[in-house]
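for the record, two folds in this file. i put them one after another cuz i was lazy. first one right below, seq on top, structure tokens after. the second one comes after a little note so u can tell where it starts
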Amino acid sequence: MVNTAPSAPVLYVFPSPAELVDGLAQFILKAQKESVEKKGRFTVALSGGSLPKQLSGLVNNPAVKWDKWHVFYADERVVPLDHEDSNYALSVRELFSKVTPGVPARQIHTINPDLLDDLEELADAYEKELIQEFAMKDAARFPVFDLILLGIGPDGHTCSLFPGHELLSEEDRWVAYIEDSPKPPPKRITFTYPVLNHAARVAFVASGAGKQDTLHTVLDQPEQGLPASRVRPAHPGHLYWFVDEAAAQKVQYPRTPFKL
């Protein structure tokens, strides 16, 4: 019988934000190397918030094979692609515009800006992007990303999966829409748990004292059921937390020395 139970999270705590950025870059490069050697491509999903800035360790790093990256967005705000609230625009400003040559444009998968007025059609179209990338190559029930990089909000939300929302129980769709986000903008699309929990690797990134209480609840009290606590990739997937010392002050969950 195949073991599909989730593996225990691995918690890496770094003395400073700068050391976190360096460690995260090393981790991503190892995941990239393994994926490219195995499949010839590296499938990555990004979230917004502070995450793109925390990928600065990849800029000017000759080991990054940008031409092998296939980038999706774990959630996206339903706004034009050049809007200040767009996760795509944020990642371009903070990362992709700073690397040359970068990821080929056709390998960065954005929402369709012509469908912003129809949330269901917008989510369906993005799900079809995933199907083209994964189902045709891997024949899997759900996409298996090489790496999904996530942040966490003060309320424990991740992607656009918010506490108490009906999307927390979605089991079939790969991409769903939300039109009543408690955090603006209200209209978004998001990966669902089946996608997050089928990834080969999921890495949360959090820094700063403002994350102390949330991390304590998510890691030490998972029974509280905050959305981030529900991200638990099934075997053989792995879950990692990259946090700095300031964010980890209240966490009792055992730390793992960072070593690749």
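(here's the note) second protein begins now
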Amino acid sequence: MPHLDPTDALDLDDELDEVERLIRDTVSAFVRDRVTDHVAEWFEAGTFPTSELAPELGKLGLLGMHLEGYGCAGASATAYGVACRELEAADSGLRSFVSVQGSLVMFPIHRYGSKEQKQEWLPRLASGEAIGCFGLTEPDQGSDPGGMRTQAKRDGGGTSRSSGAESGGDWILNGTKMWITNGSVADVAVVWARTEEGIRGFLVPKDTPGFTTGEIHRKLSLRASVTAELHLEDVRLPHSAVLPGVTGLRGPLSCLSEARFGILCGVVGAARTCYLSALEYSTTREQFGRQIGGFQLTQEKLARMQVEFVRSQLLALRLSRLKDTGKLRPEQVSLGKLANVRAALDIARSARTVLGANGITTEYPVLRHANNLETVLTYEGTEEIHTLVVGESVTGLAAYR
């Protein structure tokens, strides 16, 4: 009986063009050479070698790769999705770093920033010379960013380099942001704050007086990733620090939609790693005188994992093509994140049961991925929020309040 390719049962790689396959192979090789053998140690130690990996990721063109100009690769959405998949096959923390840099920091500067802001930050961020973070979530405001307490008030009497009345004077920011990936290692933070005109985005360099960070420790998930709090106490910024191209929640929400696309593609890689780990183990582990993969209950698990994996592959590819044609809608992204993260988490949990007690160690990747996916299920919109987005989309009735 012919065998299905467990990594591509429906020959979906045939749908990729030459450039997309080259990116797939390049990222896969980088992950294999630089990450796979070390990521379990990073996870256990709760560290991520940002200063080492950022320039390498930049050299490969992976930082802001879906953006045009300013040192960005200008790759297709499908190519970006494939890259995210290969990165997250190693660890969600690695893909998160690339997603935050490209989709949450570079994207808003690229879309809403001034010419000067783009020239100052995008080339450095694309090369990995500079690191960015995205400040939206607050200690008391997660799923409802419209209730943020961080405020920015005008101060026309400022003495910074802004040009006074013509530029609108300085801004004074106060507030706290929580659960910020890259927060304590970032050179610039994209901070969203409430103003009299509505929510605005601000570029806050790390050495700005009054701006401090504190790294969050004792995590049980996404440990190979830097997570921090941002504190802004009377932070004075020139008017030139404001992202001029957007006012209101559509600014940060558009960034989140970009990041969610990377997630729905990336988790396919985590699911693949867990599935392949369980499959290999089932053909080498023997009990009762035979390989455990030959038992019906184990095959049921493997078959169910294969079905969920294929579904997530199909969904990621379809949404990637929609994004490439400019037709992808935010509610479709929500559907994709909801479905694919659920599938990846189910696969990781099931794979752990195939590995038995061995599955709880860092010798195998499955429980590390499962733990990471618990965070992925929550960030960039919780499972509940995406459920309500899909629910509203199909009924026309909002159920958030």
